[in-house]
Amino acid sequence: LSTHLPQHFPFCLSTREGVCKCGYPKIHHVDEAIKPEDFVGESWNRHRHICEVPTDAYGDISFDGVGQKTGKYVRVSTDTRPEVLYQLLTEHWNLTPPNLLISVTGGAKNFYLKAHLKNMFHRGLIKVAHTTGAWIITGGTHTGVMKHVGQAVRDHALSSSSMRGQIVAIGVATWGTLHNRHALVQPEGFSTHYSMDIQGQGHLTCLDDNHTHFLLVDDGTHGRYGVEIELRSRLEKLISQQPLGTKGDTSDVTIPVVCVVLDGGPGTLNTIFNAMLNGTPCVILEGSGRIADVIAQVAGLPMTRVTIIQDIIRMPHLLTVFRISEDKHGDVDVAILQALLKASRNSESLGRESWQTQLELAIAWNRADIAETEIFTEESQWKSSDLEEAMLSALIGDKPEFVRLLLENGVSLRHFLKENTLCELYNQLPNCFLLRKLAKRLQSDRWGRGQVSSRQGTTISMTHVSDEVRHLLGSFTKPLYPPPNMRCHILSLEDASVSVSGMAKS
Hints:
Protein name: Transient receptor potential cation channel, subfamily M, member 2
Pfam family, one: TRPM2
Distance between the termini: 81 Å
Largest sheet: 10 strands, mixed
Helix content: 40-55%
Mean pLDDT: 78
Oligomer: single chain
Shape: globular
Keywords: Ion channel, Ion transport, Membrane, Transmembrane, Transmembrane helix, Transport
Subcellular location: Membrane
Number of strands: 12
InterPro entries: TRPM (IPR050927), TRPM-like (IPR057366), TRPM_SLOG (IPR041491)
């Protein structure tokens, strides 16, 4: 990893003299930058006046305090390919690919959130992330909406007793706006300690100590906010193109993305609009403000901003507003998942394909409650064959609530449990006593047939299962699934008897 990161993650060095447009003083520039004759009469341009070098800031990061206080970080260039970042997250940082990506955006400055709404947001965000195996992605700093996400992750970390319950919160922040960033420079990738100095940060900002992973985006400037937006957008788009779940490249369903919005100003309006243009559903958490607040904010905006609001409202299938007073259950997680399902109903997939996609998403999230209320409704009619793929996924994924729900909604075990289906289920068994017994029987069978070095016969068949059942119950029981050669022999006898009886009748 110490050699991989510097080779694949460059960061930017300014090449202008003195305190230039990039915001850095002369001592932070390379030698070529202090030759005034090279750049006389030129306006500063990021693409011309910076150079990329191997990253010098990456590794493990630790914070003070209790709760989730360790993580991983890397300093990257704005031009880093999102494929490289995704490879870093999944292969080098060993994150399991998500079943859902929750992009949280909104107010970048600290804002007041009523205690009731704050608790509901924290609880709902963690519940949806924990139950679905989602990644949460934010701006990663200890301000505004990012701070609220961090507090939700911290509360969960304090109440969870196992690493299995850890929430993945990825912060994509601007390197040039970080206070105390010099502490993060570790050319060898050693562990570093980061001190949050909120009082002394001035116009800069500190990393949030409750996020788990940080991508620190550098374009060679100092003190300029918003540098990370483009790279974050490209990364989110790439993740949304990855296949969902354990089926790998064979799955037609990709990782869904939802945008959750708290507070925010005109910039957030653009974020919502661009997300919806890309087909990303948005969940807006409404606070106590009424329409007068909206009118007051819109009144001073130019007509282009008002037009954007009109365009957003024209896409109701991508817009979900969470209102405490109207939501009888008050579950933010339900609102997030409902928004995704509502968007999928209006996608290019029509009819049965749309419902199949929704069901596959619900199973990947392990939310039988959502499937029961949003998918298995009176307007959707299911045949047993439509649900068999979902039933197989539920059994392999050990999701008993979905098995019950699918049986209640039309799965016929007589048609579903074919021999090839049973074989697939037995070959997908988790590590258990029965699997070890079957593996041992499979190995003995291969030895008996002289296939010691052959790769053939490496899957469990129903004959192996039948033999193990007879071993457990006693040899007096009839083989449920005799060997193929014996089956052919029995079939031949049956065919012969049919022929003989037919001749007798004639």
